[in-house]
Amino acid sequence: MSSHMLVQMPLLAVIGIVACRMLPVRLQDSILVKVGGSVPCVMVALFASSYWMLPRALDAALNDPLAELAKFLSLPLLVGFPLVLAWRRLTLIGRGFVWTNFISMLAVLGWLYIVAPVRVCNSYLVNDQESAGWYMVIISVLIFLWWLGTLMVGGGMGPDKHDSSGSGTTLA
Amino acid sequence: MASYTYTPTPDQGAKAGVLAYLVISAVVLLLMMLFGLLMRMEQAQFISIGGLWFYKLLTLHGAGMVGIVALAGAAVMWHFLGQYVQLTQGIFMANLVLFLTGVVMILGSVLVGDFHAGWTFLFPLPGTSMGLWSQGAAASFMGGLLVIGVGFVLLHLDIARAIIKRYGGLGRGLGWPQLFGPDDGNAPPPAVVASTMVTIVNLIGLVVGASILVMMLVNLYVPTFEIDALLAKGMIYFFGHVFINAVIYMAVIAVYEILPRYTQRPWKSNKVFLASWTASTIMVMFIFPHHLLMDYAFPKWFLIMGHIIGYLNTFPILIVTGYGAMMIVYRSGIRWDMCSRLLFVSLFGWAVGAMPAFIDGTITVNYVMHNTLWVPGHFHTYLILGMVAMVFGFMYYLGKPDENAKDSPIDVAAFWGFVIGTMGFTMSFLYGGKEGAARRYAEHLPNWVPYDRLGSIFAMLLIASVLVFIFRFLGRLGLARRDYQRASLARSMAT
């Protein structure tokens, strides 16, 4: 369960992130304009990633090939890709909203998995679920500390900050 | 070695948003004080409102006071920080709208839904009301707190953005290059250092608070998702203690910014100042276990940490600020008026108010004193005579007609009424605590009642004085928006 939720699925989102960053900046900009700007992109990423946090979505992905296909397509295309598109335009407030929302959700979901009175995924055992929950809580704390660390040294500013890579798509 | 000289800066009027914050703060503060008076009069057996209303008022008073002093502190911080960095007016107002939305939810929960589990909403009380309030009322209370928290997260993200943009990072906002390297005299001003500290600790506290609130909301509707009660208490107190500590660190910016204008002496961001703020940035997040010392089930190291850090964190900023203020005022020829008086007395209130907490933070004392009125004695002193005095000082500063304007005798009388009323009111708590009067009890034993009666009388004096402050501020709202010299120059300067 941990490798499914915390390794495979994030890596699928990373594929979308990498794919988007490989596109020319001008193309990224034109796609961003066509899809309505950064807010819709963030919303799509939030809802798509929230769906794949549901236990029954995990079960479906393991039991139904169509759901598995949807996972392999939606995580890169609806989470990683739009997030990178939006990221360049978000200020620290927007980025901070995404980070604090993601961190809180991850921590709370992990907590729910730890204390759930029943097995929430048919495909995994209770101890899998509990260890996945602990990993989520630990990862959320580490991400939070890392994010705060970037603020301490001045990273994650948003579009006003000059980015040495030229693409302006630093993740913090 | 850096040299510090005072550079005169114009006294700017407040933006409409700041005034909206202050007006709402003043009105709600007064209302909450009246609720507090009613509770004290109930304990004093002057009136009889009954247990239900006592605990409803206790819940409103606790949550309302924490929220409203945070709002007032945010107004002070935003006003002065905005003179150094570019803040976003829209976010500032969004915080106000979210705050008011949260307040309506909380008021509805308590007044309509009869929720009365206290501001601490300790698990599992909100979900186990035994029929005294509904699930919806508990959800509305916790949802209201969550909405208020979201507003403050947005506000602090905007402050972080502005500080990072201007100074290059929150570390630089705390003056780390000057603290850990040579002091070139270019450290950020105290207002920026304090705002950076508050932003860091509040962002952490609010995320932790949001997590426990969401978990408790889940538990409210699906009780089989059990929460470890001890963990819940730890998280609630971490969030609550960081948040209420932060309010005085916001409001003290008024002291850093306004007193130098009176004395024409700079408030130095030197190494000692920067070190104290950095130390407190860390320590303020580990001090909260002094409220949990009676929870023997917590790990021993955790409680010992609370004891030690409680001792250590009492002093750095307080001493640096108190000593700094005395050095700024000493032989400066300062001309005292309502603003400078209130700001100066606020440091006394802060220092005096911290001492009972320092004593209560000692484990052996805590076992005996923590559940008594000693603790309300502590936080009422440091909040009213410390933090709230800073806010009223700021209000007098904004509304001062001109630099040579004289205070009316009514204002001066109100100042002394405020100081004596607060001291008497808080001493009745402290002395009641010493005599063993339990806190959070609607009904008191006969031998506790005399302290309650004295406390009620002093509270009336305090509220009467606050009424003068508030009416004076409301009457001068028109002046508060204009830019002109407000601070009376020290006699040595005003030749």
From TrEMBL, chain B:
User: From the UniProt record, which GO molecular function terms apply?
Assistant: cytochrome-c oxidase activity; heme binding
> What are its GO cellular component terms?
membrane
Does Transmembrane helix appear among the keywords?
Answer: yes
**Which Gene Ontology BP terms does the record give?**
aerobic respiration
Kindly state which keywords UniProt assigns to this record, in alphabetical order.
Electron transport, Membrane, Respiratory chain, Transmembrane, Transmembrane helix, Transport
Q: Does the keyword Manganese apply?
A: no
Gene3D superfamilies membership: Cytochrome c oxidase-like, subunit I domain (1.20.210.10)
> Which residues are in the Cytochrome oxidase subunit I profile domain?
1-495
From the record, give the transmembrane residue ranges.
18-38, 58-80, 92-112, 132-157, 200-222, 234-259, 271-288, 308-330, 342-359, 379-398, 410-433, 453-474
**Protein name in UniProt:** Cytochrome c oxidase subunit 1
Species lineage: Bacteria, Pseudomonadati, Pseudomonadota, Betaproteobacteria, Nitrosomonadales
